[in-house]
Every structure is written in structure tokens, then in C-alpha cells.
Specification:
The complex is a heterotrimer of chains A (about 375), B (about 190) and C (about 625). Chain A is of the alpha+beta class. Chain A contains 5 helices and 18 strands. Chain A has helices at about 1-15, 20-50, 70-90, 95-120, 350-385; strands at about 55-60, 65-70, 120-130, 130-145, 155-160, 165-170, 175-185, 185-190, 205-210, 225-230, 240-245, 250-255, 260-285, 290-300, 310-315, 320, 325-330, 340-345. Chain B has about 190 residues and is an alpha/beta fold. Chain B has one domain: Glutaredoxin (3-Layer(aba) Sandwich), CATH 3.40.30. Helix content of chain B is about 35%, strand content about 20%. Chain B has helices spanning about 1-20, 80-95, 110-115, 120-125, 175-185; strands spanning about 50, 55-60, 65-75, 95-105, 130-135, 155, 165-170. In chain B, the strands form 2 sheets. In chain B, strands 5-4-3-6-7 form a 5-stranded mixed beta sheet, covered by helices on one side. A two-stranded antiparallel ribbon of chain B has the order 1-2. Chain B is rod-shaped. With about 625 residues, chain C is mainly alpha-helical. Chain C folds into 4 domains: about 40-160, no CATH class; about 175-305, no CATH class; about 310-430; about 440-615, no CATH class. Chain C has helices spanning about 1-25, 35-40, 50-65, 75-80, 85, 100-105, 115-135, 145-160, 175-180, 190-195, 195-210, 220-240, 260-265, 275-290, 290-305, 310-320, 320-340, 345-375, 380-405, 410-425, 445-475, 480-520, 525-545, 550-560, 560-570, 585-615; strands spanning about 40-45, 45-50, 65-70, 70, 90-95, 115, 250, 255-260. Chain C has a two-stranded antiparallel sheet. A two-stranded antiparallel ribbon of chain C has the order 3-4. In chain C, strands 5-6 form a two-stranded antiparallel sheet. The longest helix of chain C is centred in the C-terminal third of the chain and has 37 residues, at about 480-520. The chains are: A alpha+beta (about 375), B alpha/beta (about 190), C mainly alpha (about 625). Chains A and C meet through helix 2, helix 4, strand 14, strand 17 and strand 18 of A and helix 22 and helix 23 of C.
Amino acid sequence: MQAIWTSLQKIGLRLARPDILFWVLPLMMALLILGTVAQKNIGLYAAQEEYFGSFYTWIGPKTFTIPIPAGLTIMGIFLVNLTCKFLFRSEWSWQRSGSILSHFGVLLLVFGGVMTALTSQEGFLMVGQGDQSNIVEDYHSRNLVVYDTEGRPFVTIPHENLHDALRIELPTMPVTLTIDKYCFNCSISMRPQSEQEGWHSPGNRMMLNKAPADSTDEKNLTGIEFTINGAKDEDINGKYLTFVGFPKPPVLDIDDEQTITIELERAKRPLPFAVKLIRFERDMHPGTDMASAYTSWIKIIDEETGNNFPAKIEMNEPLRYRGFTLYQSSFDLNGDKPHTVLAVVNNKGRIFPYLASLIIALGLIIHLVIRLTGLKKSTHKEEAAR
Amino acid sequence: MKNAAILIIFILLGAILTLWLDNASPPEIKSVPITAQERVPLSHLPDFEITDINGKLFRTSENRGEKLILNFWATWCAPCVVEFPKLVKLAKDNPDITILFLSSDTNQEAISRFLEKQSPETKETLRNKNIIVAKDNKGKITADIFQTYKLPETLIISSTGTLAHKIVGDTDWNGEEIKSILRDLD
Amino acid sequence: MKHFLFAFFLMTLSFLYVSNLVWAQEQKISPLSIEKFKALPIMHEGRLKPIETFAQAELVRFSGKQSFEHQDATTWLAHTVFDPATASNDRIFKIENSEIRHLMGLEERKKPLYAFTELTKGLQKTFPTVEQLINVPKQNLSSEQTALLTLHENALEYTQLLRSLSLLLPLNVDLPDQYKEEINPETVNYLVLKKHAIDIEDSIRNIIDTKGNNPETYSEKEQRIAILGLQIRTIESAAEGNSLFRVIPSPINDGDYLAPWELIQSGQATWESSPVIKEWELLAQSWRETDTTTWNKTTQSLLNQAKIKTTPELLYNKIKPFQTSLIFYAFSFLLALASITFHHKRSLSWLSIFAAIIAITLEAGGVCTRIIVLNRPPVGTLYESILFVGLVAPLFALLMEWRMKNLLGLLSAGFVGTTIGLLALSMADEGDNMKVLSAVLNTQFWLTTHVLCITIGYGWCLVTSVIAHMLLLGQALGRLTKDIIKNLQHAQNTLAITALLFTATGTILGGIWADQSWGRFWGWDPKENGALLIVLWLVWIIHSRIAGQFTSTQATMGYAFLSVIVGTAWIGVNLLGVGLHSYGFTEGLFWGLGLFTLLEAGLITTLSLIIRKKTLA
């Protein structure tokens, strides 16, 4: 038992050494530069995923790519180094208290980062003036959803699993859906006369084309062109298309009793309460078209707890309720009534940056004060010695 | 080990705080305020006098303490002509408000002809004491004092002589918005 | 004491000399005093400012300069709005691109400045091209196409200026007889004519009914009426949407200011605004007739009605604190250098300190004025953050001087003040650089905490870098004694930790702001990454020095390189054009930053090699 503990300590002490930090930091800085410059070409979200949200990534010209450690690896090593230092190499003393505190603060910060990465969920809630909604849509995940006659989703496939020639058998129904063309980002053009055979409206007039991914992930228009087989009515079989936000998703009567609707939509999550938009206000700087403030006056309708209350959400002032934070993100004034877009975030690690910041700042201040007053002590000693 | 304990304590602290915040009561706001319009504290309606189409003199100075609706119109202005009878009806329903119809017509006969063509009800109401129909003299009041160059425009003046509302163009005089403006008018 | 007095006397002399240079009044062409007219408030780009700022911004936009033919910008503006017919011959449009000049059919001149009247033909000719260019995304346009578009935009803005007061300026019309009684032909303007517009329209309709559409068949009287009607309609349609010269306070919406045409056309006029329009009529009249008494009386009356006092901004425009302070920093640097060279001559060092203090006071005054005028913390734009760092970095350097007492801190103060002052000058927005902020930045608390903290951190970093450069330079040249080296090294290390305190706290505050506003503490946004880069760099050097992986000289090299790291994080990230902090790509900036990086890397490496050689020898 003792032997295991001793070897653990030995390992811990080795892992706590500052030479690890000496090599990790430049790697992290290099990664930061690479990951930032990459954002110009592939956009913020993709760069985040590739450089900071994965364990390794590839760099170099197309013919000669080499793997390099990415964010998770480097930060992981850093976390281990820092934790071991704190556990095995931090003897408390007045002289060193400031330094140990700041290090501990950073440790908490990174730990909070881990919690955020594991538990954070982001999405947006769009609701029109006078309406209410409790559906949060994801910014990035999209699903192919088939709804049954009662409007219940009974087949859901995430977009990452969609590809050309995918054959989907619908459970309890004789119908198969075969994807002919899947595009993560589609452009829409007119379907030429020669290819209109077998297509149902409006797919006979428009067609989807694979387009390169947009650097702003949310702007990608995901769509599919597919063939239906096995419906009782031969007229129903044939080719269709749909995409995210398509106002007329295919609705098919596959037999006398059942009707299905095939939609591509952003992944949806329900909130445990509903948000009603009472009024959306936008203030402009006088005589300009630059907004100076946005405000959403809402009402929270919570049937679970019975709380119904009005609230105000504006830029830089979110609403926190039951672990969710609602932010004023954007708006849409183009329709018949104003719509507000609220960002909804649920993050169990959110308190740690605040705790950590206090501790880091405290530690740095203590260290600086000790250093400044410590200098005076030593110069007095020097003068006395002369 | 001391430090391991410190670490665990802080993580637990974080977890407890998170749970506590998740279940905290929502912030208190009593109700959603109604949009308040930033109003300029205005000066008093300038005094002027006008002779109505029957030759009677009307002085705004003598009308102090009364609410006033000042409607700039003309017979050649289509929306003015459409809203004229509606305004007359408003005058009938609100005898405590004086309504002055100030026309930019250059020719008094055009006004008389126009009034002749009104419905019997309107003509009857036009005899009420709180309605005055007058013709401006070459824009001396409409343009020079009030800077009105497009018709119709209507000023709603409170009993203290300050401007409560200015309505540019025609409006639904029977509608909710006007009704609530008049209700709030003091 | 003698030295002190002598230094003070010399300082005051030079101050007076420099201030005269900077603050001297421009030679006046018109006998009318512009002083009060300058101070009248106008609403422009979302905030209320004195007419002087507006005039300067517009003139710089067209001609690149703040004065026109020895007149100050406000005089030029008054000339343009009160006397547009003559003013349109002013050569104020600067067209630097020779292709565009050729395209527009303009003659070549020593100075490529052209009048609006010279441009009209060319503008018409190139209009179809411009119509197409408007739909092309900006980054795909060549520099010529951008220049052409800008010229058209500027011309449009200029026409709005010319027509600002066309509704109240006297018209040159041939009045038909029936109107000669009531209308004074000397003072007839659009507003007067508009009252009779319906009459005129009726007459024209009758004429067309009886004589048809051909004006040649009309009698002289009828022609005059037809022309009058046409003139009214032309003026009206030309002024459609003219909302540039917003000097009339709206009687209906508090705090809003309208252009005269806008006031009349939108129906926001009431009895309150008509005396104001009358006063502007008087202004125009007294300007054209050079009637000093009426001019002074009317400008004073309008000024009394103004709801805000524009004096702070006028003072700011006059003193130009950030350009003046640059001169004083340069003086301070040179004097400190001279003092060091001449064995720490006291008079020179006192002069240097005075100069630095004057510069800092000017900058502090400038920053405070910006706070008062904009009513927010002074760090909302990139330019403002440069101004602020230009204030705090020299201050920190002076603080180091107080501790070190070896004149090197003083030298750093002058150096840092001058370089950042020059940087600010090159990055200044054309025209008015006091901007209002978009909604996301419109928060007093976070601007004050996060942005101030980070910019102060940048300030500390820059001073650390300068001290490190001094250490390297001094050691390479063999000019530093062991004591001074120790002193400097200790200063450098303290500075580095202080810099770390501020940048780390500032970065974390930025994360907290992001959490409060957008729901995530850290998003790997370029600006966030840049700030983290500085923090990591500092951490790396500090740690490696303490743990022994870096020698003292290597650590100093690392600290010296902070200048590049800060430059990249602060300004470089904006070049990427992505993320929340992007301000768009500027080619000059990109190459400038690249060159700076190379130069610094070269300098630091060379100095360290020299030092190595010296220590080995």
C-alpha cells in the first residue's frame, strides 16, 4: 500500500515540474495563432471545433499534412501539470501564498472550462410579439425528422449521419426513403426541363446543389433530395426535396390512415417553461441606422412551478431562471410583427470562472504587495550591512 | 492532504452555488411599462384671431381653458375632404372640445359649396357652438405661424394651451388611438 | 534652485511658442465673426456636436484638409449653406486617382482639387457605372472602383449640403404681376412661394387647358407663371430626403434635431419652430449682406436657445490635446537623451520632466473632455484605446523613474509617449473621431472595468518592453554599470508581474462580460485569443526565468518582444475581419505590423548576440 502511495507521489512530483509548463505554453501559443488565423477561412465555429475542441488536428499543405496536438491535448497536459503542482508541490507560506493562490485560481478556471465543455447547451428561442414559445433550437445540429399523422416525430436522424444513397426504412410502415442527394449547404436553382420526370412539386421546378460550407456555421442551408417507395398510392411514390426552413415540407398519404411529414429542421429542445414576448423595442442613435439598445419585454409562464412573471431582457442584461440564462441575441423586424431572438444557455460550470477570477486576482495582488514591501525589507538590510 | 482537501472543498462550493442559483427566485418586476413618449415641455399656443365663414370673429385668447382641435384642411385636398365629416361627428360627441377647421382655400365660395354638399346631419352639427369653420388669409396662420405646408395636419391642444398631439396626415378619428388620446387629454 | 528656475523659464518660453503655432487663429476672410456660429449644435452621426466639428469632418471628407484657402472649415461651411450658388465653384474635391480624373474629363493641376461645377458632367457620365458597382460586395472592388464610388457618395453629400437651406434662401424669380403686391421680390423664397403654390398650379392648369402644353404659345405673363410653378417643384424634389444639416430642435420629439427641409416635409413643425426658421433666414441674409449687427445678434440668440453647451468640444478642437502632447513628448525624449549624454545635467532633466508632465496633463485633459462630451468611458473604439494607452504608459514610465532615479524611466516615458502618439495620429479616423457606440458596446460598467483594465495592462506591457529594450541596448553597448543593470532588471520583473496582473484580470473580466452578454465565458474569438496570447507569453517568460529554463538575458529578450505580441493582439487581430472585435482589413496596417515584427525580432536577436559575445570575451 505504502509502495503504491510512494510511486504515486513520485509520479505526481514529476508531473508537477515546471519544465512541462515550459514546453506546453509555447505549444499553446502556437496553437492560438494557428487557430485564430484559420478562422478567416473556415469560420469561427469550424476553427473552434478543429483546433480547440479536439485532441489533435492536421496542418500543412495538402500533399504533406502532419498531425499536431490540439486544444484538448495541450490543455489536458496543462491541467494535469497544474493539478499535480497544487497537490504535490505547494507548501503554504506567507512568501508564497500569493503565487499558490493564483495558481489555484487558474486550476479552478480550467476545471470550470471542463465542466462547461461537458454540460453546456446553447440554442436560440425565436418568438414573435404576442406569441409564446418554449422550443429552443440548436445553432448547429440539424435533424431529418419524419412526423406521423398526429404530428409526433417517429424517426429522427442527425445530419452527421445523412449522406447520399442512405436508405431509411420507416418503422411500422411499408415505405422506404432513399436519399439521392444530401448537401450540408445547398444552393437552390431551377430544375432543367429534362430532369423534371418523376418529381413532385415544387421539386419539379427547383433543385438543390451542393455548395461549399459557409464560414458562419448557422448560415448553412442543409437539404436533401430523396425518393419514396412503397406507398399504397403509386402517385405518392417518387422524388421530393426538403431543406431547413422549407415552408412546404412534403406531406405524404402513404395509405388510407397514415400521413407522414418529412422535415429537415434544427435540433429542438423544450424548455421547462414558456416565454411570451409582450413587446420588442429597439432604440436607435438619433438620425442614424445604428441601434443603441434592444429590449425584449417578456413574460415567463412556468406551469411546473406555477411561477408566472414579467421580465425584461436587454443587451448586456440577461434573465436567469432555473439554471437557464436568456440573452438578447438578435431580432427580426421583417415580418408582419417583430420577432425577438433570445440565446438560451444552460451551463453547469458557469460559476467557476467567477470564483476563479476572484482567487486569481487576489493571489496576484498579494504576490505583488509582498514583492514590493519585501524589496523595502531587503534594501534596509543591505543598507544596514554596509 | 491539505491541498487535495482545498480543491475538493472549492469544487463542492461551486456545485452548491450552482444548485442554489438554479433554484433561486426570479427577479421582481411588477409589470411591463407602457411605452412613454418623451414629450417636450412646450410653450403656449400663440394667440391669433380668425374670422369664420359667417363673419364672426374667433380669438384663441378668449378660448383659453378650453381644449382645442385645430384642423388644417382645404377643399382641394382629398384626404381632408374625407375626414371632414368624421371630425364634425367627433365635435358633436365631444362638446367640451372646440374644433377649428382652418382652410387654405383661396376662395371662400369653394368652402361654401363644399359645406352645401355635406349630409344633413353634418350640416346640422356644423351649427354647434364648438365648431368654427374659417378661411386662412394667404397662409398667414397655417404657414407663417404653424409652418404647415402639407395638408391635412391636426393639432390637439390641451386646456392649458400646450400641444398634446400633432397628427400629420389623415387618421381614423373613430379609432381606439384617438379615443384614448382624447380620454387622456386634460 | 537656479537650475530649476532656468528650466522653468525655458519651458514656459517654448510652451508659448509651440502653443502659438498650434492655436493661432486662421486668417479671416469674412469680417463676420465665426466664433458663435461654430458653437451652435448640430445632430450628426448620432450625437449632438458643435458646427465646427461637423464642418471639419465634412471638409476633410471632400478635400482631405481641415481648412480651405486659408479659411477655417466653419467659414467654408457657412459659405456653402448660405451662398450655394457661389460656393459650388469652390475647389474642394480632392481626386488623387489619375484614372478617375481622366474618366471624368478633368484637367490636370498641380493640386488635384476640383469644384463641384467642374464635376457635374463627369458625374453624369459615370453614373451608370456606379449604379452597377453599388451591388458588388465591397471586397471585390478594385481601388479605382472604390474611389469612383466614394466620389459619387461625396458628391451626393455635397449636394445635400448645398441644398440644406434652399427653402429659406432668396430666389431669383421673375414674379408675375399679380403677386408683386404681396411678395417682396428681394426676399422671396421657397416658403413664401409655397403658400401660393395651389394658386399657381391652378393657373397653370388653366393655361394648359386653354393653350396646351407648348410653352412657346404662352404669353409672357403665362410663361412667368409656368416657370414659377416649375421652380417650386424643382426645389421641392431636389430637396427630397434632405436631412443632413440637422440644426433645428424638433418641437415634438425631445432631443431630436432636424434639418430644415426635413422639418417642413415631415410635418414635425409647430409654432415653436417657425421663429427658429426665421432666425436662420436672418442668418443667411446677414451673411450675404455682411450685416455684422444682425449676424451677431442672431447667432447669440440661437446659441442661447441651444440645449447643450458645446464649449468642451470646441476647446478640444482648438487645443488638439493629442497632437500637442506628441510635440511635448518628443521634446521630453530629446531632452532626457541630452541630459543622459551630458552626464545627467540637472537643468535638462528637469526640462524633460516638465515637458512630460505637460504632455500627460494635456492628454488627461483630452481624455476627460472625451468622457464629458460622449458621456461614457473613453475606451469604446480602437482609436480611443490607443489614446488611453498613450496616457497611461508614459505615466507608468514616470513612476518607474521615481523608483529607479536613473533617467532611464524618463527616457522611456518620452519614447513611449512619442511612438504611441504617432500611432494614434496614423490611426485617427478621418473627420470626427468621437463616435457613438453600437448596442453591444453600449454599457458603462463593462467598458469601465474590462476595457480599462486591458488597456492599462497594454500600457504596462509596453513600458516593460521599453525597459527590456534599454537593458539589451545598454548591455550591448557596454554603457550600463552592474548596479544599473540590477536596478533595471528588478524594475523589469516588477513591471512584468504588474502587467500580468492587469492583462490577466482584464482578460478574465472580458470573459465575464461575454458570459453576461452572450452566454459563454470563452469563445476563442480572435481578440480573446490575442489577450490570452499576451497573458501566456508573460506567464511563460516569468515562469521560465524563475524556474531557470531562461537566463536573465533570454528573459529580457522575451520581455522586449512583448511589443510585437501586444501589437498583434491589439491591432493585428482586427485585420482578420472575423469575430466580434473586427474592424476590417487595412493593407497598410498589415504590412506595417509585419515589418515591425521582423525589425523587432532582428533587433532583439542582434543585441542578444552582441551581449553574448561580450560576456564570453
